[in-house]
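Hi L.,

As promised, FAS1 domain-containing protein:
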Amino acid sequence: LSSPLLLLLLLLHCSSPASYPSTQLPAPAGPTNVTKILEKAGHFNTFIHLLRSTQEDSHLLTLLNNSNNGATIFAPSDSAFSSLKSGTLNSLSDEAKSELVKFHVVPTFLSSAQFQTVSNPIATEAGSGGRVSFNLTAYSDSVNITTGLTNTSVAGNVYADNQLAVYRVDKVLLPVDIFAAKPLAPAPTPAAAEKPKKKKGAPAGEGEEAAPVVQVGTSAAAAGILGIWSVKVTAACVLVLAYTYGG
């Protein structure tokens, strides 16, 4: 080979990369942040405030990034909260506010197509009982949500990936557990009046008021009658004897 060609081959060999397996891992996806999603969408300021004040945003962050079930959020808009009776949120305890937020979260990813086949009642993060779940019914052109106190429809899609779905609702979903009076516990059955128990070893009738006993003095009465008859018989005998010997 000529010198120029040999020099070119040497340069190409020295510049080629080493042929060893790559250990570089793909960059991890960033954690799903619900509040950032709602902030970007806009008009969810009150719901965002509730998420943060109850620390449910941190719970959702953990749920979404440490679970394969995903989550579905029915987020009320600011206008939905404005339509509540004045002072409603301020009257709630911290525990009730936390439950209210959880009531808007389903701990399973539900795509819009799954609304057609979902089973009612829908369990929420607040629980699965009848007072903390709601019904979802899909029609050809709408999706209706009923809680027993609220009747509304899904107003639009806010966000969706393979793990999280966020839908807008124009009414706050009110759980029966917070906003309806709980049934009163049944009154206890009055216990039957117990008869006074006799003391152990006590003779019959002790502890009870004794009834007056009327005794008939048969022996005394008989003795009196016999005494009277004896006197009469004796007198009769005396008269007979006097008449006989005196005549």
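Confidence is low (pLDDT under 50) at residues 14-28.

Thanks again for sending the construct details.

K.
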